Amino acid sequence: MLKWVLGIFFGLIGLGLAIGIGVFAYLYATTEVPQPEKFALAEKTTVYYADGTTPIGSYAEQNREIISCEGLPDYVGNAIVASENRTFYTDKGLDLKGIARAFINNVTKGTRQGGSTITQQYAERYYMGETTSYVGKAREAIMAIKIAQTESKDEVLCNYMNTIYLGRNSYGIQAAAKSYFNKDAKDLTLSEAAMIAGIIPSPSTWDPADNPDMAKARFKRVLNIMQEDGYITAKDHKAAEFPQTADVTQQNEYAGPNGYLLDMVRRELVASKTFTKEDLDTGGYKIVTTIDKVKQDAMQSVGDTRADGMPESIQVGGIAVEQKTGAVVSVYAGSDYLTQQLNNADQAMFEPGSTMKPFALLGAAQSGVNFDTMFNGNSHQHFSGITAEVNNALNINWGNINLYQATANSVNTVFMNVNEHLTPQRTAKIAHEAGIEGEIDTSSMYNVLGINALTVWDLAQGHSTIANNGVKNTLHMVNKVLSSDNKDLYNAPNENKQVFDANDCALVQKAMQGTTTYGTAAGVSSALGGRQVAGKSGTANDELAASFVGYTPSLLNVWAIWNPDADGNPQVVPAFGGYGVTSTGYPAHLFEEYMTQALQGTAVEQFTTPKDSGKIGGSDGTWGLGGGQSSSSSTTDDEEAKKQAEEEAKRKAEEEAKKQADAEAQQKQEFAQQCLANPSYSTECPNYPGTSSGGDGDTDVEQQPKPDPQPKPDPQQPQSQQQ
User: Fold this and answer.
1) Transmembrane residues, as ranges (predicted)?
2) Which of 196-210, 289-303, 330-344, 629-643 has the lowest mean pLDDT?
């Protein structure tokens, strides 16, 4: 029996060895050692819209040029050897431990890890994207063996230098020399060669333009090794100074607005720690985003359209989000990435103003305050810790009003009262819990009025949690990433974390619906076919920015405008096209224009009807006018004061509209007088020479459409009385 068992055992071993030898022989015979010009250099990574078939663009144009290495200075190749494989000239081209380690990591972890020798790295690059398979890794190892046996060290090094990825979309030393120093590789100095060689392990991340400290550290390391190994003298080392690199030239793939999308996708994936910049440049991935092409085209068109008289310096940022998933369906980051790389959706910052008030309103709901509680909505009030009096926009006295009315009309003094009870720390905490990552001053009562700069993305992240009934989802633009053979490598985050009570959020949504029906953005709801729309407008202190946040139950949209000078410093946003910044009319207009298109053909949805179980005056009866004052039990005098305040606001808005109309009429009259005095004044003159002037000689200048009256104001900073 023992002989029989041992016979089977050794027979199987023999069979396994025979099969192994056969497989090895087959792979050895069929594995080609390619020349650089035949190299299967990294496939492009392509980014797609949400449909998975329409491309947005690709990463890393393959900029490469194969050259002869005979004319290269010795220090070019030696710098690379010093950086990557000090034993290159003496080893057999193989590191068996490195092969085993890379094989295990590639198979078990799905990562791409090459060999430690230059020969192995060269082979690994040929099989880029295939080395996570057993066969692919085996072929890579066999290729390294064949290269070591059939090619000289100089040939291997030259082929390696001609194919390695060196950042800035450059494959090979010639392309890199031109990208970094605007010269041919044969003209590189020792310092320039050492700089390029130093960043080989991570060229996109260690590019001196992005990470000068790391690039310099790697540069010094290469020179130290070159001196230690006898490639250069101490004198050469001392004379070598870190070189000045050329400016980074953006590839044409980034032209226009799609450049922003490509950059945002890249940053999101690198931040996830799942991919490196090099992975995205050379991996040949298929990235499917959450961006809806139809909605993106609509948003780009709305953002690019400039109102009459709108200064060119005014910047616009926008974003649309499906709050139920956190998927970003469209962004307005700018018109052309190559012209302006600062992203207006997730990098440029502005003061959000009163769009921060809903977070304090949520705090009131959490504190058990019934939204029918009456508050003093008049101007000229004082609050703890503030010496200056607090006023509402245009110094309006709203009388005694509840939280619904205070939200719709963005009444500063009411929300300062709310923040006095919550404390600035609590208000900031609520905003951060909602997902806002930007800094919020926890020591200033004014934080409820939005004095801290945020991005459009950050503001959308915070409001999306309230809009989703208290469920927080991380905003994202990437749905999934597939390998070249369609294997899943990455999927969008799926947080779905309940951070707030759903009913509390529904109360805030209900209050914000007043904004779009009778408040600071009155008319927005009716313009969208009477849909329920929650909204909040905001104006920065001293009229430096304006914004609007609005949403239906399934789609949230944020717009903001600001006016930086040439150095990026904020300036006043002037009135233009009939829109005054104090009315925040223009961002609300952008919202209306975009949502009209984005919601076309979609079902009309209703917000959840909340139950307000809070107490009038709060649990301790000290909020607002106290436990005995609610909107249902307010006195006739209170109602009369409120009515008078609303009529006053309406009167002032009508006065502003009349002033605008009078100014247009005056302009028309002056133009007509100029035409009468000088018919050649303008080709628009009815009596311009060569045209018919009409029977009675009266001018007939075309009447220009009048801008809509500005909506009611929306306050920001009491000391400057913004709305």
Assistant:
1) 7-29
2) 629-643
Helix (H, G, I), strand (E, B) or coil at 224: helix
**Backbone angles phi and psi of 234, in degrees to 5:** -60, -35
Tell me which DSSP letter residue 88 carries. Answer: T
Asked whether the predicted pLDDT for residue 691 surpasses 60, the reply is no
Closest CA to 270 of 284, 260, 280: 280
End-to-end CA distance of the chain: 96
CATH of 298-599 among 3.40.710.10, 3.40.50.300, 3.30.420.10, 1.10.10.10? 3.40.710.10
- pLDDT tens for residues 625-658? 987 666 654 444 445 544 555 565 555 556 555 6
- b (16+ CB within 10 A) / e for 224-257: ebbbeeebbeeeebeebebbebeeeeebebbebb
pLDDT classification of 404: cutoffs 50, 70, 90: very high
Measured CA to CA, the distance from residue 403 to residue 408 in angstroms comes to: 8
The conformation of residue 253, written as its DSSP 8-state character, comes to G
What residue ranges do the domains of the chain occupy? 67-250, 298-599
Q: How far apart are CA 46 and CA 16, in angstroms?
A: 43
Are 451 and 717 contacting, i.e. CB atoms less than 8 angstroms apart?
A: yes
- Tens digits of per-residue pLDDT, 142-175? 777 888 888 899 999 998 998 888 988 888 999 9
| Lowest-confidence region among 536-545, 681-690, 695-704 | 695-704
**What does the pLDDT look like over 62-92, one tens digit per residue?**
667 788 999 999 999 999 999 999 999 988 8
Q: Give the residue carrying structure tokens 């004061």.
A: 641
Helix or strand run (H / E) with residue 545: strand 545-551
| 173 CB-side CA count, 13 A | 31
pLDDT for res 134:
58
What tokens does 134 get? 């057993």
Can you give the pLDDT at residue 278? 82
Tokens of 161: 């230098």
**Distance separating alpha carbons of residues 249 and 179, to the nearest angstrom:** 8
Helical axes 190-198 vs 74-84, angle rounded to 10°: 30
Rounded CA-CA distance 526/529 in Å is: 5
E-only strand ranges, 333-379: 375-376
CA distance 202 to 211: 11
Residue closest to 164 by CA, chosen among 32, 41, 37, 73: 41
Distance between CA atoms of residues 596 and 593, nearest Å: 5
CB of 259 closer than 8 Å to CB of 250 = yes
Pick 67-250's CATH classification: 2.40.50.100, 1.20.1250.20, 1.10.3810.10, 2.60.40.420.
1.10.3810.10
Query: Alpha-carbon distance 150 to 129, whole Å?
Result: 25
What are the two backbone dihedrals, phi and then psi, of residue 50, each rounded to the nearest 5 degrees?
-60, -20
Alpha helices by DSSP H, listed for 409-478, are 412-422, 424-434, 456-467
Q: Token pair of 4, please?
A: 């029989």
CA 149 to chain centre: 51
Q: Tell me the C-alpha distance between 40 and 139, whole Å.
A: 14
The neighbour count for residue 23, using CB atoms within 10 Å, is 12
Tell me how crowded residue 580 is: count the other CB atoms within 10 A of its CB: 23
How many other C-beta atoms can be found within 10 angstroms of the C-beta atom of residue 132?
21
Contact 269, 353 (CB under 8 A): no
Rg (CA), the chain: 34
Q: Is the dihedral of CA 397, 398, 399, 403 positive or negative?
A: negative
The Cα 670–Cα 513 span in angstroms is 44
- Sign for the pseudo-dihedral over CA of 261, 262, 267, 269: positive
